[in-house]
From TrEMBL:
Family: Belongs to the ABC-4 integral membrane protein family. LolC/E subfamily.
GO annotation terms (biological process): lipoprotein localization to outer membrane
UniProt protein name: Lipoprotein release system transmembrane protein
Domain MacB-like periplasmic core: 24-159
InterPro entries assigned: ABC3_permease_C (IPR003838), Lipoprotein-release_system (IPR051447), MacB_PCD (IPR025857)
Gene: lolC
Major localisation: membrane
Residue ranges of the TM segments: 21-44, 261-287, 308-335, 362-381
Membrane topology: Multi-pass membrane protein
Compartments where found: Cell membrane
Length: 396
């Protein structure tokens, strides 16, 4: 009986076409709301993962730093390599610099690295350096910095360091000319316009470092969250290990908050659409109250009446969820597979729209939509059981 009545109430009623129209709008509203939510969350998650991958590379999974510059020794590096053979290490020296070419100046950060070690842990450096040799005061600039100065490979740039040299009665900044031998593109303009790589021995001579002394150690690890604990346990006093997520905590907290806010706002679309389910069912109840009264008088229980209209709401809302899920997944595949939307690569790091829908997000979306549909179906179903049988049959 329940299946028969549900199918009957779902049919188009010529005498009350507005009820059917409300049901169709409710179905489409839930479907479109769910589709928009799935696509929006896939885009947000895609951008999050894209930025995370780029920051993971340029900021390194783990970085060992010292409280004093140039205090990490070659022996300490060798000890770490012996204790953790499964982890890759690359020592570095760093300094803030001003890059000067012709009459233009730009601020930057220079890293003196052992190129062989750095290529093992940084894919951006590996792709940029190719076969170039930075020994003998050569540098690799970010593409943004290179384009800013309109430089070509082989040209000279002057680097002005924060270290001062005595000159007469005053201190003057240390300056050194380097030859541009390579460039890199990280996908993030903030790094491409600021980072510079040089040979660690050349930079040590410029800054007056003793042989075998470093500012820090860049580390590549496949399991940084667990490895940082292992490394921290063996580090001597005055040194600490920092994960990439700690260096960019505020950035990812802001992205997470934005994603949560977007989820709530778009879920309201489904909530608004579900109001059509309530209005459609309430109108069906009011239009069919004589039939309901007859069913109750013939012995049908209130529980069965409630189940009929609850099932009716779930068919409309549940059908909308299934259809919206199909549309959403198709939209994610379509936008992710074809270059329908083009982005400025210098801003977003990629010209292709990143689409990455996580299973957790998908489950949360479906569960949230299902919960809203359940609530929307319950109230009209309960209202159908509160019809006064005698009063209804007497008047109608």
């Amino acid at each position: 009986m329940i299946k028969y009545l549900v199918s009957k109430y779902l049919r188009f009623d010529k005498s009350q076409p507005f009820i059917t129209l409300c049901a169709i709008l409710a179905f489409l509203g839930v479907s479109i709301g769910l589709m928009v939510l799935i696509i929006a969350m896939a885009i947000m998650n895609g951008f999050d993962k894209e930025f995370e991958r780029k920051l993971f590379t340029m900021n390194y999974p783990i970085t060992i730093m010292s409280h004093f510059k140039g205090s990490i020794t070659k022996d300490e590096l060798a000890t770490l390599k012996a204790q953790f053979p499964d982890i890759k290490f690359s020592p570095y020296i760093s300094s803030q610099v001003i890059v000067k070419s012709a009459n233009r100046l730009e601020g930057g950060m220079i890293f003196g690295v052992n190129i062989a070690d750095e290529k093992e842990i940084n894919s951006v450096v590996k792709d940029g350096i190719k076969d170039a040799n930075l020994s003998g005061y050569g540098v690799m600039l970010g593409k943004g910095l290179k384009d800013e100065f309109l430089l070509s490979d082989g040209e000279k740039v002057t680097l002005i360091f924060t270290k001062n040299d005595p000159g007469g009665f005053a201190l003057i900044p240390k300056m050194k000319r380097f030859e541009l031998r390579a460039d890199f593109t990280s996908g993030l303009i903030a790094y491409d316009k600021a980072y510079i790589y040089a040979d660690i021995n050349d930079l040590a001579r410029v800054l007056g470092y003793s042989d075998g002394k470093f500012d820090g150690i860049h580390i590549y690890s496949k399991e940084p969250f667990s490895d940082i604990k292992r490394i921290s346990e063996v580090l001597p006093q005055g040194m600490r290990a920092i994960g990439w997520w700690e260096q960019n905590g505020n950035f990812f907290s802001a992205l997470k908050l934005e994603k949560r806010a977007l989820f709530i706002v778009l879920m309201l679309i489904i909530l608004v659409a579900s109001l059509n389910i309530i209005s459609s069912l309430l109108m069906t109840v009011m239009n069919r109250r004589q039939e309901i009264a007859l069913l109750l008088s013939l012995g049908t229980s209130k529980k069965e009446i409630k189940k009929i209209f609850f099932t009716l709401g779930m068919v409309i809302g549940g059908g909308g969820i299934v259809f919206g899920l199909v549309l959403g997944l198709f939209g994610v595949w379509l936008l992710g597979s074809f270059d329908i939307v083009n982005l400025p690569a210098d801003v977003y790091g990629s010209s292709k729209l990143p689409m990455e829908l996580s299973l957790t997000d998908l489950v949360m979306i479906v569960v949230g939509a299902l919960f809203i549909v359940l609530l929307s179906s319950y109230y009209p179903a309960k209202k159908a059981t509160q019809i006064d049988v005698l009063q209804t049959l007497r008047n109608e």
